[in-house]
Write a structure and sequence with these properties.
Order of helices and strands: HHEEEEEEHEEHEHHH
Strand content: 15-25%
Largest sheet: 5 strands, mixed
Length: about 230
Amino acid sequence: MAVVTIYRLAEQAMSLIEGGDAKAASSVSFGELKIACGQIINSMLKTEYFNINLKMGEMIPNGTVLGLYEGIEVQSSNGVSQATLPIKPIKLPRNIGVWAVYPRYANNSNYEYNKEFIPLQMGQTGLLQSQPLINDLLGQVGYECFGDKLFFTKDIKALFPDIVLAMRLAVMDISQYGDYDTLPVLPEMESEIIKQVVALYSVQPTADKVVDATSAEGKGTPLNQQKQTQ
């Protein structure tokens, strides 16, 4: 699977724009296309700036944003539900690169953004299980993050077979990525990003039509043809 980079997106968009309308009066620059790609990615991920600093000197890097990723599948194995992170978030203290996880329990329902799952630090699930009063998290669902996997305190896939997740993950602002850096976007977003960029620049002014006096259009109808038609 090809790596998604800002250069790759802009290059494909440029090829479609230039090849689709060779008679266009003006053309867009490669730099403009890279900016447009970044703007569309920010819009698709619904990014918002992550400007919260933790206590004890734990700082959030400048240019960090939260991106929203939806439609993440949940798998169940041996009575344990787990999910794979769609992209690799920024490594931050206390695993807060995985900022929030939200459920959508049925296909015809909405994501419950006001009922996010409870984040746990590695090892806390085992500690909770030894405490009868709180081991069920008062009916809530918790999760631990191990690498690119999330493991949940309940088998939510067995309870809700159609469940999918939305995640807010900490990434860098798209403008901070270089031409060949891997972007924090899903592979299936690539074609949609290119499509929207091409749509932005596909409506270009057509070149003014210049009538050449020596052409057939400029000459009009010859006199001998006029006589023949009479």
